[in-house]
Amino acid sequence: MASHDTDFDPKDDPTPAELIAARGDLTMNAMDGLTLDGVPLNSIAETVGTPTWVYSAGTLRARYRALAKALKDAGLDAQPHYAVKANDHLAIIGLLAREGAGADVVSEGELRRARRAGVPASHIVYSGVGKSARELTLALTEDIGQINIESAEELAMLSAIATAMNRVARVALRVNPDVEAGGHAKISTGRATDKFGIAYDDAAALYAHAASLPCIQPIGLATHIGSQILDLGPYRDAYARIADLVRMIREAGHRVDSVDCGGGLGIPYRNQPAPSPAGLAGAIRGAFHNMDVTLSLEPGRWLVGPAGLLLASVVLVKQTPLTRFVVLDAAMNDLVRPAMYDAWHGIVPVSAIDAVGPLSAADIVGPICESGDTFARDRQMPPLTPGARVAILDAGAYGAVMSSPYNARPRAAEVMVDGETWTVIRDRQSYEDLWAGERLS
Ligand code: LLP
User: Fold this and answer.
1) What pLDDT is attached to residue 2?
2) Has residue 428 got a pLDDT over 70?
3) pLDDT tens for residues 79-132?
4) Which residues have C-beta within 8 Å of that of residue 123, sequence separation ≥ 6?
């Protein structure tokens, strides 16, 4: 299976019409153009301007419910902890929390966001390879549900802090199962050469050591093998290895009560075949059914990626002898995924007239002074003229949250569509905001 976005041939790209047809919340309406849950994107753009991130609350809820149902249907009592890094907007964390999600956090800021959005501390898991003493102290003060420990060094640090605070830290050991998870090398985390997790062969001994520490309560194991995973094989391999480890640790006389199955489930950016939550639930069940462990997951992208898009306008169309460049007012500072991972995002016109125009190849780029500021190369697009709008699809995960003010470009506005109404959930950053906190000398 082609796993890197660069492995695909542009001639196999889905057309804009195919992309819209495959996304239940999008409709191309002859009068209104592209709508999200029936709300015309043009009316949002006219009011808020572009670039603007637009999310569908309905899609977020539907996806959370589909995941929860798949787990339940597989007979699993598994708690999703939403990986806040995918999109840490308070409204999104809060919406998922109201659906029942906990939170997987990796920094003090994410922990504070999750609490601010209403996630109970007991539903928070703290992951990450380099939690500072200050962050570990906060996690213990808040008494969060679980801290995922990634090294012997980190365990020693937490043990010292917990002892000084006279608190007991509930920990899971994040184990590196040494599997190749297929996705882009920059987001693969489960190989022995990656910085993540405890080496598989060291995990049982470290668990025993953790159990001997007075202020550490080891409750289980955790694993996370990568992101945008489109093949269930690596999950099955990793979970089988974790299940073996649970048995080994139990044989040595220790309690293992829980397994955190991580995140990583991929989404069909290109309309390509992608595993379903039912498939993932099957892989989890296959390894852990009847093992008497409490299960949890850390999904990010799968929940929020397809629930968001980036609305942008065409600044100008530049024709060179070789290429038609469609230059947008959105750029790599807004959505960095194409520049950073060669990621493929669907791009569709917003106006109904544009949508029926004849397709021909274009490079769709931003205005930033780097060739990497390219959203798509050789993309089949209709003729677009200055002022035309496009939607960059599946941008709800690792979109706004990875944006930067590079080239002194203020952060784009964010909008939530909920049923027939929509709300600005984050104002466009002002220029004054851009230099707030700076001093001239
Ligand atoms: N748990 C841990 C410990 C993680 O490191 C991650 C993602 C997740 C859960 C959630 O993974 P997801 O379900 O979203 O795949 N910026 C990259 C993705 C980086 C993922 C980092 N870790 C991108 O835009 O593709």
Assistant:
1) 43
2) yes
3) 999 999 999 999 999 999 999 999 999 999 999 999 999 999 999 999 999 999
4) 79, 81, 97, 101, 102, 103, 145
Structure tokens at 208: 């025993």
Same domain, 251 and 139: yes
Last residue within a domain, chosen from 273, 289, 304 = 304
Percent of the chain having pLDDT more than 70? 97
User: H or E segment at 126?
Assistant: strand 124-126
Relative to the CA of 398, which ligand 1 atom is closest? 24
Catalytic-residue membership of 215: no
Do 268 and 313 belong to one domain? no
Q: Which of 1, 31, 322, 369 is catalytic?
A: 369
How confident is the prediction for the chain on average, in pLDDT?
Answer: 96
Question: Does 257 fall in a domain?
Answer: yes
pLDDT tens for each residue of 74-85:
999 999 999 999
Residue carrying the six token digits 């809820």: 61
301 lines ligand 1 (CB under 6 A): yes
Q: Is the CB of 264 under 6 A from ligand 1?
A: yes
Q: Which residue range(s) make up the domain with 262? A: 58-304
pTM, two decimal places: 0.97
Q: Classify residue 342 as exposed, middle or buried by CB count within 10 Å of its CB (0-12, 13-18, 19+).
A: middle
Is the CB of 298 inside a 6 Å radius of any atom of ligand 1?
yes
Residues 23 and 165 in one domain: no
Do 199 and 328 belong together in one domain? no
- Report yes or no: 428 and 48 within 8 Å, Cβ to Cβ: yes
Residue closest by Cα to atom 19 of ligand 1: 187
Mutate to test the pocket of ligand 1, among 301, 398, 401 (most ligand atoms within 8 A of CB): 301
The 10s digit of each residue's pLDDT in 163-180 is 999 999 999 999 999 898
Task: Name the residue with the closest Cα to ligand 1, atom 24.
Answer: 398
Q: Are 197 and 254 in a shared domain?
A: yes
Q: What is the pLDDT of residues 395-419, one digit of tens each?
A: 999 999 999 999 999 999 999 999 9
Cα separation, 4 vs 227, whole angstroms: 12
